[in-house]
Structures are given as structure tokens and as C-alpha cells.
Write a structure and sequence with these properties.
Distance between the termini: 7 Å
Number of strands: 5
Helix content: under 10%
Structural class: mainly beta
Number of helices: 0
Strand order of the largest sheet: 1-2-3
Length: 104
């Protein structure tokens, strides 16, 4: 489980939050980019999750869960995924606002 937490202050107008991770070989998944744009004044119309996964990996499921508090103040967005063995991916670095951090 990888948890990405952000603290977003009102009054909102979150332009773009990009979460990039690079997973070291031997897996060599190129890049998973999670992008979401949250429209001002909320109503979060669309959350787009894009991933580019190189074969032959065939990761079974990537589940993105978020819990968004009404009227904003978005306390926490949690991204969880489940990667089936035998792939033992190390913990990826998470880049937020140019700072790399590893969350377990």
C-alpha cells in the first residue's frame, strides 16, 4: 500500500497534482502518472487516472480510492493499489512539489 497525502488549503482552485513514480528494474514499468484537476468551487467533475504500463507485466488491478470532503478542505487523498506477486516492487519515491519522499 502506498499512501499519498496532500494538504490542500481552501479556497481551492487546485491546478494540477502530479504524482510520478519510477519503479526500479527488474520490473521496469515506465511511469505511472496520476493526474487530477479539481475545478474551482469544487464539484470535482473529473478525476483522470492515466497509467502507462509496459508489457509483459500485466499488473492485475490498480485501485485508486479517494475520499473528498464536501465543499472542499480535501483532507486526504489516498491512493492504494494492489500488485500481485511474484512482482515485489520496492517502495517508489513520490514527488510532490519537487520534493521526493518515500511513504510506506
Amino acid at each position: 500500500t502506498h499512501t499519498v497525502l496532500w494538504d490542500i488549503a481552501p479556497p481551492i482552485d487546485l491546478p494540477t497534482h502530479t504524482v510520478l513514480w519510477d519503479i526500479a528494474p527488474p520490473i521496469d514499468l515506465p511511469t505511472h502518472t496520476v493526474l487530477w484537476g479539481i475545478a474551482p468551487s469544487i464539484d470535482l467533475p473529473t478525476h483522470t487516472v492515466l497509467w502507462d504500463i509496459a508489457p509483459p507485466i500485466d499488473l492485475p488491478t490498480h485501485t485508486v480510492l479517494w475520499d473528498i470532503a464536501p465543499l472542499i478542505d480535501l483532507p486526504t487523498h489516498t491512493i492504494m493499489w494492489d500488485i500481485a506477486p511474484p512482482i515485489d516492487l520496492p517502495t517508489p519515491p513520490i514527488f510532490i512539489n519537487g520534493f521526493a519522499m518515500v511513504l510506506n
